[in-house]
Amino acid sequence: MNANVYQVLHLVGILMVFLGYGALLARSMAAPDNVSVRKLGSITSGIGLLLVLVAGFGLISKIGYSFTAPWLLVKLLVWFALGGLIVLINRKPQLAVLLWWLLIALGAVATFTVYIGRF
Q1: Taking the mean position of all CA atoms in its chain, how far away is CA 102?
Q2: Does the pLDDT of residue 48 top 90, yes or no?
């Protein structure tokens, strides 16, 4: 598959993760008992995390980077943090505002790592 296809799938996955978590955080702040929003947000973010992982590894392979490059390990740590964040979002609605800013910070770290800090 073409590297551009992997890149598009990776970006779509990122959009899905942040859209799903945004919905879950808004639900936590506004209507914590809304099951349908929780289900939709969880499914969207879960599929997004899977797309990010699979397309990211496909992209790494196509472009020819080493899987042990430090910047890729940082991105993998960000991915694990994003994956674990859903537990806090669903179980600790009182932390919604803090988690909102943490989500933005994780996105900023991942973006910085790719575009500026490839070390």
Answers
A1: 12
A2: yes
